[in-house]
Each structure stands twice: as structure tokens, then as C-alpha cells.
Amino acid sequence: MTTTLNESSLLIAERALAAADQLAIQSGTVAGTRVIDCGVRATGSDAAGLMLAEVAMAGRGRVWLEPAAAPHASFAAAWPDCPWPVVAVASDAPVAACLAAQYAGWKVESSGFFAMASGPLRAAIGREPLFDTIGCRERPAVAVGLLETAKLPPADVCRDLAAAAGVAADALLLLVARTASPAGTLQVIARSLETALHKLHDLHFDMARIQRGTGRAPLAPVAAGDLAAIGRTNDAILYGGIVTLEVRGDDKSLEDVGPQAVSRASPAYGEPFARVFAKAGGDFYAIDPALFAPAVVEFVNLDTGRRHSFGGVAPGIVAASFAPADAVTATVGR
Question: 147-198: per-residue pLDDT in tens?
Fold first, then answer.
């Protein structure tokens, strides 16, 4: 029997709790809701980040780290001298894994609290218009969500999310990490495939054509603060992310959509994300949405055997973004 997206995520999270010491995570309860701290007060780890990413994908994808010295051949061909480890992700059910679950499609706000929410909890709530086109809404007995935030969620947020998902407070599980933590940084960079699918959805590409997908992006050093971490994690994908999609159908439509499916299609392309964000007054929604795409998208047409590749990596921008703050200041000052 196939488990729901939320049930699959719960199984992964419970296995992680059994290894909490090794992952450097902590669990507790807020207003009856279980909360797993993976990088707010807890130290967290890269292993916790891999777990977070697989929970976010509801078990419909795999996430792993490739060492800098031995990245996958497809990544090495596009970026032969990448000096950082690579976060790799793959899914045989990418629409469910990435759009119905992993996509950080909405924000959670309360007095003094802000988080970007993702995970299959979104499918349980099902309010986003995205679900009108991809389906995947569900009414599970349990709900599992991720919160990208610098604070543990307060009681009112837990109660509101449980009510919106239609589950009891003790049937809701929230995993939390700030961006400027090992787990938080890794789980965001594990969204290269999701970024490509969301961009294609925005371009009205037929999601049913996508059969499988893989994505890779360099793992940024953990930043000292969340704002810097947001810049680095975005740059990892926008300027260093490489995505391959196996699709069916005609080639002409792939040639048409490909140039629009990569970050360089945006007029905002060409600067580290932190600068773009600052110019937008710190408002994500004021940034040209075309920028939010991987650096490279490759289509493999399973029906015709043709490959179509678009975009290119920008190692210099990634290096500037990942450099220590004092090094960046010195570079800018010259």
C-alpha cells in the first residue's frame, strides 16, 4: 500500500530521532506538537541536512553529498574545477517530491516569528493554487513540515498549522533549522531540482512530461548570519546549480522553453544574490522571478534521444559569494 507524502516523511523523521545524538538534533513539544530542532538551538550537521531534504521531498527523492575531488561526471563536465563538495538530489517522482512537498511555497508569520515553510504539510493544507494544476492534495492522519527560521515556532503557530492541515496537534511534526546552520544550508541547496521544476511550472510547461530528474549544486560554507546564508544558498543554485530532466514529447517545445528556464534569462543575473536582495530592499517578491532558476538545465528526451542544454555556471560569482566577508570587502574595495 502506498503511503501518503506526509506518512513517508514521518517515517524518515522518526528514523532520524532514533539517531538524534549522531545527527546533533534535539526534539521537544510545543502546544502538543512535536518539534525537531535541526539547527536553531541544536548544532545540527550535514547528515541532519540530508535528512531534512529527504523529509522535505517526502521520501520521493534521494539526497547525498559528493566530494569536491570526485563529483559526478555530468557536473564535472560543466564545472571541472569546482572546489566545493556537491549536494546531489534525484527523484523518479519529481513533481510530487519537489512541487507538492519540497517547494518553500509560503511564509508563516506570527508576532515576532517568521519562517519559510515547506514539506508535505503543504499538500495537507493544499491552499496554494499550484495544487490546482499538479494535484497531490491529501488529507493524511499526520502532517510533517519544515520551517526555515531562526526561532523555534511558538504555540500559536503550531496550533494554526495543525488546524490548517486538519490534524490534531500531536499529529503534527515540525522540523526547524535556520539557514545559517549546517543542516539549514544543505537542505536549501538540495533544492536545485525543485527550483528547475518550479520555474518550468511558471513557464506553463506540461509537468506530466517530466519522468525523472537530478540536480547538483555546490555546498556553501555555513555563513555567520542568516542573511549571508540566504545569499550563499541562492547563489549555489542560481550560478552553480546543474539540473538534468528526463522528459517525453517533442523537441521543439524544449528548444523554446530552455532559454527561459535558466537564471541567466533574468536581467537581474550577474551579481551575487545578496546584492540583488539588497537592491530589492530586502523583499524577495520585488526580485525578478526569472532569476530563480538553476544555472544549467539539460533536457534528455526519452522519445527522440536528443539532449538539449541551456545556460552555464558562473564560478566567479559563486566564489565571491562563498568567500569570507573580509575577502569580499577587500575584493570590492579594489
Answer: 999 999 999 999 999 999 999 999 999 999 999 999 999 999 999 999 999 9
Neighbour-count burial of 234, counting CB atoms closer than 10 A to its CB (0-12 exposed, 13-18 middle, 19+ buried):
buried
E-only strand ranges, the chain: 26-30, 33-39, 62-66, 86-91, 106-110, 113-118, 143-148, 172-177, 210-218, 242-247, 296-301, 307-311
Give strand pairing partners of 27. 36
Q: How far apart are CA 45 and CA 184, in angstroms?
A: 9
Candidates 3.40.50.170, 3.30.1030.10, 3.55.50.30, 3.90.1200.10; CATH matching 5-333: 3.30.1030.10
- Determine contact, residues 298/310, Cβ cutoff 8 Å: yes
Rounded to an integer, what distance in angstroms lies between the CA atom of residue 113 and that of residue 273? 24
Taking alpha carbons only, the member of 61, 70, 306, 82 closest to residue 192 is: 61
Taking the domains of the chain in order of start, what are their residue ranges?
A: 5-333
Residue with cell 530586502: 282
- What contacts 115, CB < 8 A, 6 or more positions away? 107, 108, 109, 147, 148, 149, 151, 153, 157, 176
pTM score of the predicted model:
0.94
Dihedral angle sign, alpha carbons of residues 167, 169, 175, 178: positive
Taking the C-alpha atoms of residue 1 and residue 294, their distance in angstroms, rounded to an integer, is 35
Q: Which residue has the cell 490546482?
A: 132
Residues 99, 95: Cα–Cα separation, whole Å: 5
Report the chain's mean pLDDT, rounded to a whole number. Answer: 94
CB 60 within 8 A of CB 5: yes
Strands (E), 183-295: 210-218, 242-247
Instruction: Write the CA distances from 294 to 50, 62, 110, integer angstroms.
Output: 20, 19, 32
**Tens-place pLDDT, residues 199-254:** 999 999 999 999 999 999 999 999 999 999 999 999 999 999 999 999 999 999 99
Read off the C-alpha cell for 262: 535558466
Instruction: Name residue 243's beta-bridge partners.
Output: 215, 297
